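A.,

Following up on our hallway conversation. Structure tokens first:
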């Protein structure tokens, strides 16, 4: 358990044992996300607790445990407080009642007779004595879920930690979803492995797979796959030594001994290892945190999870700089070095530079090697100020310092609590990509800002996970509104050097967590030259004549138009591919024709309040059908554990849902194709839609905010399109850039974005 020595936090100048002690009672094991009862007893120290003094019970920011309440004994999350001497207590819950990362606080105020040494306060989380269901624990597994206890004996609202401990382990629940993971692109004959795990309802990989025999089936030209696999000794399993024997798509199904389908893998596309062919692809998560800053579980557990349970090929760690002590920075660098293993698992050293938004906002900083100095945005929570002179309070100062000192550094602009303001500062040779999706939501506007400012950046998606699950980041039940993203890199080999060169060249795409195969290429008939560096930044950028370009390339062309070739392979059916030039969609490509549309309608709500911390939009609403009937329905992107889609007694639907720049919605299959109308009510708009008017194209209702709105469109009753290859001719602007890329949307709600190909006329 981490030590708490920061004087900004525990300020009373007394040892913990003089301020009291804490003890805990809880029936174990405690399942993550389950209802339970926890009894915590604080016993006063030598000062007691004066009238108007208080004791506070602190929870980490990342915890998504049920919100404590004190006035509804029969409802979930009811908590009670009692004093051994019978004095009056006033409990209060404050979601930002203490200091980072211990933001969430139950403060118990002593209101009349003071507590003397040896008197006690008992807090019962999930008091069931009056019919309540208990207290819902945090949704993520945790080695030591800690409730930190502090006392203010003097009524000065200055606290100190008490002795003892209030912590317990949160373990995964029963498996509800199996995962089978393959690489998405491999050369014929090159070995790879299948990786299998099972997750509980909260997205935690189970500690041990249910014992038994699994049946494995393959589609495609695959060698080395056994017919059966015995599991149960471990939480995951790997089958190495698989090889594609011919080009094409490969998929694997996992069944139990009775033939029930447990999981279907993502697709793998096998290709001939020909000269000029795109390299293989590798998946990972560059951006998340551990408990030493504002996350969950230790940094060591973080790397182990990413490698062994999320099945990442590479990972970064991005603790907030103003909370990284020099000792932790040294420990992180030791872990980067320890876990980096070429051809197996790559780490990329770095940290999150976290100034306030108007001074630049959040940036992910990466180094090619360990041992580089950390240049913080501030020392807000760092006790040792001996190196405060190296702080870079403005992002322009950071980029200048990295250049001045000759650092081999790269950066992503991203949106977390703070959002990156590209107008405040940007360095195109260092900041080569923008992160447009994480568990915080989806932020295409950050990419659009880059286009508007004339910056040539790639696209990444990562998790910014705070729950100890880098690479497999379920948002849980708190302020995170989306499943965490993943980035896919095109690499010749899995080494840090190859990862670095890939990021420099922007040869990657990002997804909202789905491992789909995506290949986007521009084809040239006339003279075209690709640059190894951005020629607008480097006059000495080398140019090479090419006939085609891949995502991320910067190319000077002489043709007024080029061909764009896209291949997409996914486990889920494909809803659409949006072909874009900059922020403008020039065509929406669907794998079905209007004549194939059926009785299935999709209702989607999306967007955010604004760019900042309070961006989450609540969409709790209802849908009624008049003159028709709902035969079946299914939710889309309902990630939050306590928000659901359900049928109403009158045959309609109701839901609780949030979006944070991403989208959610429902598929509704009707009894009749065109009869009747929909009546939709949400906090932001109410509308009536004639069912006969719903077709291939979106019916759009805008609702203010930031990209906030509602869409209704029609789908085939069954969409069997899991692969799509298209070619289009697109114009190249006579002046300026033509940033050419695609956005993919799958029927399961996942999305992907290719890094743009930047084309410009070679005058």
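Then the amino acids I'd put at each of the 763 positions:
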């Amino acid at each position: 358990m981490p030590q708490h020595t920061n004087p900004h936090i525990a300020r009373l100048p007394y040892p913990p044992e003089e301020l009291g002690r804490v003890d805990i009672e809880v029936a174990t094991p405690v399942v993550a996300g389950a209802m339970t009862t926890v009894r915590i007893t604080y016993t006063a120290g030598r000062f007691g607790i004066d009238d108007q003094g208080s004791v506070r019970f602190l929870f980490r920011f990342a915890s998504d445990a049920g919100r404590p309440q004190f006035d509804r004994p029969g409802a979930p999350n009811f908590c009670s407080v009692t004093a051994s001497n019978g004095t009056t207590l006033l409990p209060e819950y404050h979601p930002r009642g203490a200091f980072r990362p211990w933001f969430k606080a139950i403060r118990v105020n002593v209101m009349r007779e003071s507590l003397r040494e040896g008197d006690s306060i008992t807090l019962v989380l999930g008091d069931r004595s009056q019919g309540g269901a208990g207290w819902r624990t945090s949704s993520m597994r945790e080695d030591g879920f800690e409730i930190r206890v502090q006392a203010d004996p003097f009524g000065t609202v200055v606290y100190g930690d008490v002795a003892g401990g209030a912590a317990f382990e949160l373990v995964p629940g029963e498996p509800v979803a199996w995962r089978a993971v393959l690489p998405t692109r491999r050369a014929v004959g090159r070995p790879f492995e299948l990786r299998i795990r099972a997750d509980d309802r909260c997205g935690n990989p189970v500690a041990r797979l249910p014992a038994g025999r699994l049946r494995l089936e393959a589609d495609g030209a695959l060698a080395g796959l056994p017919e059966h696999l015995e599991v149960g000794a471990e939480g995951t399993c790997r089958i190495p030594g698989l090889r594609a024997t011919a080009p094409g798509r490969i998929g694997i199904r996992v069944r139990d001994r009775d033939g029930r389908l447990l999981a279907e893998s993502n697709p793998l596309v096998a290709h001939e290892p020909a000269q000029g062919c795109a390299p293989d692809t590798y998946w990972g998560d560059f951006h998340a945190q551990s408990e030493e800053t504002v996350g969950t579980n230790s940094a060591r557990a973080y790397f182990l999870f990413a490698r062994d349970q999320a099945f990442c090929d590479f990972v970064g760690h991005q603790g907030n700089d103003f909370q990284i002590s020099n000792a932790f920075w040294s420990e992180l660098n030791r872990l980067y070095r320890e876990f980096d293993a070429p051809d197996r698992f790559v780490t990329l050293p770095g940290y999150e530079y976290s100034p306030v938004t108007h001074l630049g906002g959040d940036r992910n900083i990466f180094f090619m090697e360990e041992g580089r100095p950390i240049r913080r945005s501030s020392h807000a929570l760092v006790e040792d100020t001996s190196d405060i002179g190296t702080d870079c309070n403005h992002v322009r100062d950071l980029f200048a310092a990295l250049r001045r000192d000759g650092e081999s550094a790269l950066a992503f602009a991203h949106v977390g609590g703070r959002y990156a303001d590209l107008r405040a500062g940007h360095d195109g040779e260092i900041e080569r990509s923008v992160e447009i999706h994480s568990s915080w939501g989806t932020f295409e506007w950050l990419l659009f800002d880059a286009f508007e400012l004339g910056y040539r950046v790639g696209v990444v998606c990562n998790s910014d996970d705070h729950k100890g699950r880098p690479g497999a980041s379920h948002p849980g039940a708190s302020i995170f509104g989306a499943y965490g993203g993943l980035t896919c890199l095109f690499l010749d080999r899995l080494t840090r050097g190859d990862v670095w060169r890939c990021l420099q060249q922007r040869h990657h795409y990002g997804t909202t967590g789905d491992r789909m195969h995506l290949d986007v290429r521009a084809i040239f008939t006339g003279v075209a030259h690709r640059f190894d560096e951005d020629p607008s930044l480097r006059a000495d950028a080398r140019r090479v004549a090419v006939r085609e370009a891949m995502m991320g390339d910067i190319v000077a062309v002489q043709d007024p138009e080029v061909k764009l070739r896209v291949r997409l392979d996914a486990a889920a059916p494909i809803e659409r591919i949006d072909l874009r030039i900059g922020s403008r969609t020039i065509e929406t490509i669907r794998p079905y024709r209007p004549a194939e549309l059926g009785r299935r309608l999709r209702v989607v709500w999306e967007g955010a309040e604004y760019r900042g911390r309070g961006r989450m939009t609540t969409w709790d609403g209802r849908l009624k059908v008049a003159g028709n009937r709902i035969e079946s329905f299914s939710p889309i992107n309902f990630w939050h554990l306590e928000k659901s889609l359900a049928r109403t007694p009158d045959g309609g639907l109701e839901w609780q849902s949030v979006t944070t720049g991403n989208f959610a919605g429902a598929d509704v299959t009707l009894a009749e194709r065109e009869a009747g109308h929909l009546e939709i009510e949400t906090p932001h708009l109410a509308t009536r839609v004639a069912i006969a008017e719903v077709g291939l194209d979106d019916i759009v209702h805008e609702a203010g905010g930031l990209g906030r709105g509602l869409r209704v469109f029609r789908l085939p009753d069954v969409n069997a399109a899991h692969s799509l290859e298209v070619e289009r001719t697109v114009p190249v602007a006579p002046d300026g850039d033509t940033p050419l890329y695609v956005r993919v949307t799958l029927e399961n709600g996942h999305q992907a974005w290719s890094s743009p190909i930047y084309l410009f006329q070679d005058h």
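Helices lie at 16-19, 299-308, 326-339, 395-404, 444-453, 496-505. Curious whether your intuition agrees with the design.

B.
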